[in-house]
Amino acid sequence: MSILVDAATRLLVQGITGREGSFHTQQMVEYGTQVVAGVTPGGKGKEVAGVPVFDTVAEAVAATRPNTSIIYGPARFAPDAIYEAVDNGIPFVVCITEGIPIADMAPVYAYVKEKGARLLGPNCPGLITPGQAKVGIMPGFIHAPGPVGLVSRSGTLTYEVVDALTRAGLGQSTAVGIGGDPIIGTSFVDVLTLFEEDPATEAIVLIGEIGGNDEETAARFIRDRVSKPVVGFIAGRTAPAGKRMGHAGAIISGGSGAAADKIAALEDAGVHVADRPSAVPELVAQAMARA
Amino acid sequence: MNVHEYQAAEILAGYGLPVNPGAVATTPDEAAAAARNAAGVVAIKAQVHTGGRGKAGGIAIARTPGDAREAAERILGMDIKGHTVRKVLVAHGVDIGQEFYLGVTLDRPRRRNVVMASAEGGVDIEEVARERPERIVRALADPMLGLHPYQARQIGFELGLDPAKINEFAAIVARLYDAYLATDATLAEINPLVLTKGGDWIALDSKMSFDDSALFRHPELEALRDLDEENAIELDARRSGISFVKLDGDIGCIVNGAGLAMATMDAVKLHGGEPANFLDVGGGASATQVAKAFELVTADPNVRAILINIFGGITRGDVVAKGITEALGHVAVSVPIVVRLAGTNAEEGKQLLAASGLTAVDTMDEAAAAAVRAAA
To answer: Which CATH superfamily is domain B96-222 in?
Structure first.
């Protein structure tokens, strides 16, 4: 078991003929993900890594019945691609694209919710269920199947923690990157809910960073609703206030969003917070031994 | 992106908001002339991208052109929280009756825009939010339908406005919301919004910030960027696709990925050092990107060691290593360099580095500790 993606995932790639889209399609196919179709307007009849390309999502859906879509490509076109996927009944859409204006994402978020679909991202690395399906841009080889569910706002920092877990013999049920933008489709709480229900997940790792208060919301949810052990790490203890640290959402503003507040909230909720990424596996092992 | 008060006021005036007239001056003589034109009491206001100008002495009231000149002489060149005052706004004096706060921003947890108002105008709204949250009235805008007129009226009634003033107030709320949306703002704020003793509305102080991701469709806003207010190095970095924030320490950091870059700064601190910067080289980490990163980091005279932390994902370790060695051929680096390479093709990368005399370590902790030792 796992969450959101597995061996039964039938993936559609929107923007498949672009530089990123074609490269990552190749990578996902090599990992073993079932990539059933791609869409690029005007690309009908082409193939990328053996995957057939269609002009529209409607055609791709009719021909190949995908149940998940992943979007690569420029910020100008990404919201439109999300609408196209959702309007064609795809229940789970992953958006990798970085730099989508906030004003474009606010209606996208509301629309996806109203249609009962799920959006992961934007500005995220995607997700992976090791050994079954990789739907994103993470390096597959650092992952291993196992009992740890991981959820993160970051990309390379997630790889750092996954790598440490795998080296310590702790594989992952699913690793989910929710993205670093101010408006994202899937929150920590959404993923925690799924991990709590997933029988294959025995412990959860939550990786946060400065900005917003999603970690605080997650902490309240963990206290009230999560029975599995949770280990956390928060990046940005040394970040100054008022400066955006790379990610559009990573800014401490008006005294809120600081790492210390997030760490305190998580610790109050019984989460074991690591002071460095390399300390995560040991805390996970201890928490699982106690559980 | 931030703009000055006078620029925000010009934008809001374009959306029909009743901003207080004023003129920008860069010299005491210009300030005196503007005061003469105003023919009355004026406020001389420092134009800097930071709050707390009043407390810092950056705002003065002048009754005569002579007073205006003196005030401008004192304020121009003043340092307010690290910002040098290069311009003042000479604004007309206003006969204040009541002061309100009115602002539009994103309510992140609810993923919707929110209009906020308070009858406690002219003070730090964050302080009001902390200490007297019941004094702030809010209305969430529907992401599809926008802000309804009834919501704007309701805010007015909840503020205790005279019913005769409600429609005028609601129009101001609607225009501010329109301006916020049309410019891809992340904040549009009038503080205070004044109701004069004569019953007129005046936006006495305006503030706007804009979504960096949306600037591509607002060339008119890009033109308002004040290069004096921006860190030249940070701007230079952004043009190369690098995120850079200058800090006060002495260990320069070059990292791929924003989250890992923050974690690397934290690791430096944990090992007893102080990071000199936040730097995310971006996804590619090509030779040109790495060369640019070296240039940015070594431009800071405080830097005594450089820590490069790369976790190869799609970015391959050997490509990054090649980038590092090539970059060192172009940029002279005189401080010790500590490299940490992990992930995709890390071993090949390490061999390439070894061939050019650089040793790479395996873990972030080792690298941070080594960089702190090297800087000591």
So the answer is: ATP-grasp fold, B domain (3.30.470.20)
Sign of the CA dihedral with B201 first, then B204, B205, and B210 last: positive
pLDDT at A249 over 80: no
Q: Assess contact for A196 and A230: CB atoms under 8 A.
A: no
Find tokens 């802000």 and name the residue: B147
Window 122-141 of A, Cβ < 8 Å to B: 125, 137-139, 141
Residue A110: closest C-alpha in chain B: B143
Considering only CB atoms, A254 lies closest to which of B126, B181, B245, namely B126
Distances (CA, A) of B209 to B8, B183, B184, B317: 9, 9, 9, 38
Beta-carbon separation of A239 and B262 below 8 A: yes
Each domain of chain B, given as residue ranges in start order, spans: 21-92, 96-222, 231-375
pLDDT in tens, B355-371: 888 888 989 999 999 99
Domain architecture of chain A: domains with CATH: 11-120 (3.40.50.720), 138-290 (3.40.50.261)
Query: What is the rounded average pLDDT of the residues A198-218?
Result: 94
Mutate to test the interface with B, among A28, A166, A233, A238 (most CBs of B within 10 A): A238
Q: Look up the ipTM and state it.
A: 0.90
B213 and A248 in contact by Cβ < 8 A?
yes
Query: B231-375 adopts what CATH topology?
Result: Rossmann fold (3.40.50)
Q: Do A182 and B108 touch (CB under 8 A)?
A: yes
